[in-house]
Amino acid sequence: MGDLGPAISEDHERLPDSPTVTKESVEDVKVLVTGFGPFKTNPLNPSFLIASSLPETVTLPQTTSSPPRRIRIHTHPFPIRVAYSAVRSAVPEIIESFKNNHDGRPPDLIIHIGMASTRDYYAVETVAHRDGYRITDVDGEVGYEDGEAHWKDLGLPDVLRPGPCTISSDGGQDAAHKKRATTVYTTTGISTTSTIVTDTTTVDSTNTTTTTTTTTTSSSAPEEQQDQRSIRNTIVTTITSTAASTPTSPSPPDAHFLKTWRSFTPESTDVRISEDAGRYLCEFIFYTSMAQAYREGRDRSVVFLHVPGRTDEESIEVGKEVAVGLVKCIVSCWVD
């Protein structure tokens, strides 16, 4: 959340290059985290400072009922611009990029972080509304065209909360159980033109994929066209992928969620549950993210964290501990 502040250097606009690379496992819980850009008179938004300070790996200690879990935190390397149109385009792009880098597997959990300058505490939001985004963004625009009007056309509900996957109102089957896509590639060489049609069907949450590829190659050389000669080949390929997703059971944060979160944060830290995300960019991205999960038939395993406006080193460190505690809390409460 936040308006455009003074220009900041490129060094502050993205994360530093990581000096080490840790190999991921399909058993890791994968968490995607985002933060916002400058807000009003703040040249740096604490949401992105906190997001960019998070460790790449967190381990949830073993309990009497579950083994230790390794959690991989993937912070989006750029702050999201505080504009309705930017959020509408950025959220699906970020999730699609994540899937492309993880064998088609979406993040298990998503945490969006934003700033609430009027609050002196940390809060997890419980609900996001479809309508009513009338506060102008950094472009001087309200959220009607990129939010309410668009979402109404899609038949999305007026309120969304974290929760299990729901069959979307467009009548389609849960996308987590069945997806179908056709991609056409055309390449033209010196003497041949090839068209490749790929038809992919994905069944159930284990992402087992069958791909049928039809390749048609026809001659484009003049003398071969005169001879009316062509070559037609059909190749059928079955590819099985086991990029299994981590089972989750999300639900709106409640008293148990808050108690668990507090158990992972410093004792004196003020963390709360909120039912008012502000009807600005923070709530807008919360709804946008849950709406995409809703339409794709994924669990709405999405959390929004509001942080105070302080950007001093000590406050960012506290925010980091709060966010890490929230990651552990979500895994403890939502991951099966």
UniProtKB/TrEMBL annotation:
Chain coiled-coil ranges: none
Annotated stretches, region: Disordered: 1-22, 203-229
Keyword vocabulary terms for this entry: Hydrolase, Protease, Thiol protease
GO MF assignments: cysteine-type peptidase activity
Feature: compositional bias, Low complexity: 203-220
InterPro entries reported in the protein's UniProt record: Peptidase_C15-like, Peptidase_C15-like_sf
BP GO terms, sorted: proteolysis
Pfam families (UniProt xref): Peptidase_C15
Similarity comment: family membership: Belongs to the peptidase C15 family.
Protein name: Pyroglutamyl-peptidase I
